[in-house]
Structure formats: structure tokens, C-alpha cells
Amino acid sequence: EAFANIGKRDERVGAYLTLNEEGARAQAAALDDKLVSGEARGLLFGLPVGVKDNMVTEGLRTTCASQFLSNYNPIYDATVVARLKQAEAVTIGKLNMDEFAMGGSNENSSFHPVRNPWDLTRVPGGSSGGSAAAVAAGEAYFTLGSDTGGSIRQPASYCGVVGLKPTYGLVSRYGLVAFASSLDQIGPITKNVEDAAYVLQAIAGHDAKDSTSANVEIPDYLSALTGDVAGLRIAVPKEYLDGVDPKVKAAILEALCVLEGLGAVWEEVSLPHTEYAVAAYYLLASSEASSNLSRFDGVRYGVRADHSGNLLDLYLESRSQGFGPEVKRRIMLGTYALSSGYYDAYYLKAQKVRTLIKQDFDQTFDKYDVIIGPTAPTTAFPLGSQVGDPLTMYLNDILTIPVSLAGVPALSVPCGFADGLPVGLQIIGKPFDESSILRVAHAFE
Ligand code: GLN
């Protein structure tokens, strides 16, 4: 069914970069035997999954939507991919994204943009735009995305699906091509909250191959889906309602009414450092990216420029040809922010702001169980409308970036429509308390 839908729709949606039809059918055929043998089945038995193209898959091309890696065939599986296999999900292909996960509209893919299945003239969000659009279009049962500053939650919101960014460290990033290592997290994009709980169960947990992987006990996420939110204390930051599209705000307030009707209580609070989050994030994320992306030199991975005179030219030409404009912008910004003389003024200052933002969350969680607001200030915008204006594009992340800087978990669940386009409700939890946000989202759904 997934391949049939891809055949029917993907020419217009553009969610996939590489299909694994032969491999998937072979894997599914091997699972078929189990159907009759009565052997125990994996948690995700037989479910077709699409994987964002920045997670490496053994023998299956992994491009990060960059020309630089257009010929790259990894020799191993990312830990999440291995865990999906263990749970007996079937990998059907690799999903389009913004190049190296830098972007918020999927227009920075060097192959082709992705279109929003709800309205093909609009963006699906980014950078996991392919992952969100594929679920919305029925081109996969579920997908994996990665979120550095909002790239799971924002596209989930624009495409009317569920997207969960786990706590930093809960899911292994071994085999995820690094963008900003202190922020990157992998998480599920699904049709509903129950599916998100299943997928998280399969991929969460310590991995010795990732030095930032947390060694915490993994709870039974499914048992959190009780429907009971009576007495739950919800904080609603006023900074998350000011300045958002009035129709988005109306959908969020309606969702809060529903939760109130289920016995939860909500109060307005302030996260005073919110306004500095975007500036701090773009300094920190770009700094880390400039360092991480130095490994792409035309020697170790991917495409090498021809006819280079000497080694320096080889690096220069391979990088000039391999990277797209947004990636170059980030590398230059990051290199500048890290250079001597500017380090204290930019990088160090941004780190201090990050600590203040984290403290905003800590203080709020002393009194409240979850924080709720919109996932994004607007619904999906028209393709081409912001691509020439990176600052406007960066400001779309204002409601997802603080969570990323603080390292806490958050989930986007559809909560209604504004002018016929889906609106996402963002539910933010305490570190490693994915159970609570799943419980609230499930009760609401
Ligand atoms: N839109 C943000 C950026 O461009 C977030 C990207 C992400 O989370 N990967 O950096």
C-alpha cells in the first residue's frame, strides 16, 4: 500500500529521494514466514517506515539532500535504523529534507522541494519535510525525523501529523550525520500519538556508540496512554501566544478548553528569555555546524571535484561545488562566530543565553507538569514566499528553538485547522518525562 501510494502521489509530493523497493520486499517476505510459524513478532512487525536521509543505512544511499553526498552508500546502519530492523519494521526508502537539515521549509533540498499534501502550493515545513509529508500522504506508516531547532515538530504541525522530539540523549544519534551536536535529536513522525509511543519504545535507550546517550531506564510509554489528565497543571507562556496568527491562537485556546474539560488546569506564565532564543540558536547551531561539516573535504566522503591542482584546491573546489547556498551561509556564520576576537562576543554570550533559557524551563517545571503552546506561529506558507529572506525564515522557529536549547522533550499534535490548514499544539515536558507529554497528547487527541 505504501509503495502504491508513493507511485500515485510522490511525483507531486516529492517526499522520497531513494526507494528501497527490492530490499523492502525481501525483508517483508522474510517476515511473512513468521506469520505462519507463530514465532514472537517484533514491536513494529511489518510496518513500512521511511527514514530521513541524514541517518545512515547500510548499502542504501544516504545524501542529506546534498549534492556532496549524492553518491554516498554507507557501510553500516545508524543505531535507530538497526533498532527499527530489530523491531521488524520494513525500511521502504529515504526521505527528502533541507540540505544537512538546515532549513524550515524543505526548499533547501538540492534535489527537489517537498510539497505539502494538504495544499501542493505550500511548503511541508522543514527540515524533516519529507518525513512529515510522507506520513500525511500515506506514503509510509510512520517515519523518523531529526530535530535540531524544530525540524520534527514544525513539519508535523504543517502537515497535520504527530511529531515527537525526545529529550536530548534519549535516542542514540550514532549514524545521524551531525548538524549541531549539542542539539540534534532523532524522533518519530506518526499518524497518531499511540503510534509515536510504539516507535519511541523501539528506538529509545542507551547506546555505548553515542557518547551523549543517556543511561536512563526506559519506561513503558504505552502504559502512559491512560486518557487521564485530571489535576494536571499546565503552564501557557504568554510569549508563545503573543504575535502568533490569530487563527492559530484560537485553535490553541480551544485545545486548552478541551483539556480543561478533562480536568486539567492551566495558567499563563512567562518564559522571559524566549525573545533571545532564535539569535542564540543560530549562533550556536551554525558554530557547531561549521566544525561538524569540516569532515566533508572531497577525500573522505561523497563527491570529489575533478581537476584540482593541489590538495587545498581539492578541498576548496569540492566544498564550493558540493554545498548549497544555505549550508555555505551557516558555515561562514559559524566560522566567524568562533574566530578569535569574536568568540567571547558571540559564541560565549550565546551559551550564557542558552543557560538562561534552560533556567526559564526549570523554574516553570517546579510548579507545572507540562508547558503548552503552538508549535509554530503560522500554518504552512506558500512555496517560494520566504526562501529569499533567511531572517524571516529563521523567525518561524521561535516557538520550537527554546525547547531545543533547553534539551527538553516536546511533541506536536494536530489540534484543528486555520483556513483549511492544520495547526499543531506543542506539548513540552520535563527532561525524560516523555510519558507525560504522550499522556496529555493522547487524552487530547
Ligand atoms: N529551521 C531550523 C534551522 O534551519 C531547524 C533545523 C532543524 O531542526 N534541523 O536550523
TrEMBL record:
Keywords: ATP-binding, Ligase, Nucleotide-binding, Protein biosynthesis, Transferase. One of its GO terms (cellular component) is glutamyl-tRNA(Gln) amidotransferase complex. Residues 1-438 form the Amidase domain. GO terms for molecular function: ATP binding; glutaminyl-tRNA synthase (glutamine-hydrolyzing) activity; transferase activity. GO terms for biological process: translation. InterPro entries: Amidase, Amidase_CS, Amidase_dom, AS_sf, GatA. Pfam families: Amidase. Belongs to the amidase family. GatA subfamily. Allows the formation of correctly charged Gln-tRNA(Gln) through the transamidation of misacylated Glu-tRNA(Gln) in organisms which lack glutaminyl-tRNA synthetase. The reaction takes place in the presence of glutamine and ATP through an activated gamma-phospho-Glu-tRNA(Gln). This is Glutamyl-tRNA(Gln) amidotransferase subunit A. It comes from Fontibacillus panacisegetis.
